[in-house]
UniProtKB/TrEMBL annotation:
This is Quinolinate synthase. HAMAP family: NadA_type3. GO terms for cellular component: cytoplasm. [4Fe-4S] cluster binds at residues 119, 246, 336. NCBIfam families: nadA (TIGR00550), PRK09375.2-4 (NF006883). It comes from Haloquadratum walsbyi (strain DSM 16854 / JCM 12705 / C23). It holds the Pfam family NadA. The gene is nadA.
Amino acid sequence: MAELETAGFESDLSLFKYDNLEQLPESYRTLTESERTDRITAALGELGDDVIILGHNYQRREIVEHADFIGDSYELSKRAAESDASYVVFAGVTFMAESADIITDPDQTVLLPSMEASCPMAGMAEALQVDAAWEQIENATDNRNIIPVTYMNSYADLKAFCAEQGGLVCTSSNASDAFNWAFERGDAVLFLPDKFLGRNTAAELGYDVDSPTGTDAVAEWDPWDPAGPDASDVSDAEIILWDGYCQVHERFRVKHIKSIRESHDANVVVHPECRRDVVRAADVVGSTSQICDTIANAEPGETWAIGTEVHLANHLQRWHPDVEVVPLCGDACMDCNAMRQIDPNYLTWLLESLADGEVHNAVEVAPQERDRAATALDRMLEL
């Protein structure tokens, strides 16, 4: 797949959007921030403990200021499962709401403020597509025992597929542990959908992915090739990387790191979803939680450039005013269009509707799929 460059990104990203299932009523479209704040506060006052709001780290300030918890996707799902709230409002993207539905109790309902908030990377490896490629990959590798590992940033049906095939789910923090778990049970790993996280994890495990000639042990499977994937590319591979990526993290370049160091004398921390050369050039690499910890533990007066979604950089600057926190390549470069679909006006509408007894945008994973996806998650927890 050809990676998207920063220029022209907005028009390209529209290809990944889904039609909204609930049209925002016209009366909600022009609310001011103060009107929204007052109305959200009033609605939450009526709903009380019946509702919990989860705000992902990548959400804008106007969303997270109303959240009961702020954090990573799976961390937030666990918070929901630990709560007694009847309604879980997940201010994130679709796969996150699915994960929350999988691990919460059956009497809890997960709601997504806007059904357009669908992660493009998750859409690059849908279960039907992977299922069709599975036989080709097995044949290409002489039917060696391949264990699929899917990143948390994937749909529930892909998590279920991985469970069926003996695999599991991982986060960016435990990907190397998941790979090792898979190698204990099979001959090769198919990692989906983020090839950059997969390549960085392979390097962490000692695979030579940085030499100019590369290594046959780590190969990519390109389902987007019009001529069809070249089976010989993965015939000897121990790690097979599905050709997918995050459009936010893919846009960072080494030139951005060089520029920010020159202009700000900054330390650089990036997410492992970034390109391999960007990860190599950074001072620190880690998940969003690890990025937060890095800033929390920074010395006053230090400058840190953040190589992840821009709203987390903005939050960290507000939360740690004694540290200078700057986006690695500017606001436009780092903005996640999928997260932006969770508009504060949608949150207002959803909560007021709920206070009036109307439930909108419920996310419910089919029971059989839910059980299998839960198995893949349980295997991750065994790590």
